[in-house]
Amino acid sequence: MSREADLDRLYELLIDLEDRVSGKHRLKSCTGYLDWPKRGVYFLFAHDEYRDTDDQHRLTRIGTHAVSSGSGASLWSRLRAHRGANSGTYAGGGNHRGSVFRKHIGKALIERHNLHAEYPYWGDGSSADPNRRLNEHDLERQVSDHIRDLPFLWIDVDDEPGPDSDRAYIEQNAIALVSNFEKDGLDRRNSDWVGAESPRQEIRNPGLWNINHVNGDYDSAFLDRVAEAVKDTTPV
User: Fold this and answer.
1) Nearest-CA neighbor of 37 among 144, 148, 156, 123?
2) Which of 38, 44, 66, 169 could be a cystine partner for 71, CB 3.0 to 4.6 Å?
3) How far is Cα 219 from Cα 170, in angstroms, rounded to an integer?
């Protein structure tokens, strides 16, 4: 089958998933009190962009967690890191050093608004002292505003952590399928997409907030595994 046909099938599966879980969620209204599956793969969509062929929201990021052997990360802990803090010192913001997704959006916003002087250390290191985090809080808030409004779905794939897990397999192949990196452009991004100003070519060209796997090939058989997972996924 062609890449276009495989892409159509992926979106059809996501429509089935949306029907099964009674609609897309948004992180601004999600908490850890929901009955999240322990492990899974998430699909984030642009809230204001649609596919070329229909009115379905276009995918903007695909991700999972616990792909290192022994990792204890859960689906909700990964989504919460992307969402940021609801309360406390950094309420409304977050920690981009704990979420590469947040880091990439912040980098693009810095480019768009020429904020290099205000945020010279954005993305540096794996941690930061409280003063630096407070200085970066306004930008963290902008990143949170962007992420929390993105519609998203997830599939329940509860296998053991590791690079050979089904979750890693689905994530890698879904990203490679959706990515437009050095391929015919399918479902191109709008010209005002923030990611178009990312300093990373791997984000600008594929049209995804992903770096890994955007320039890879995909195995269309992964769609059968997605179909199985859709059937196993229940509402939270």
Assistant:
1) 156
2) 66
3) 10
C-alpha to C-alpha distance for 62 and 209, rounded to whole angstroms:
8
Q: Is the pTM of this model over 0.90?
A: yes
Q: Which of 37, 79, 78 is nearest to 234 (CA)?
A: 37
Which tokens hold the place of 34? 């929901």
CB 102 within 8 A of CB 140: yes
Angle of the 222-232 helix axis to the 3-20 helix axis, nearest 10: 10
Q: Is the pLDDT of residue 72 over 90?
A: no
From CA 236, how far away is CA 226, in angstroms rounded?
19
* Residue 228: φ, ψ to 5°: -60, -45
How much is the average pLDDT of 157-180?
A: 96
Please report how the helices 222-232 and 166-178 are oriented relative to each other, as an axis angle in degrees rounded to 10: 120
| Whole-number pLDDT of residue 229 | 97
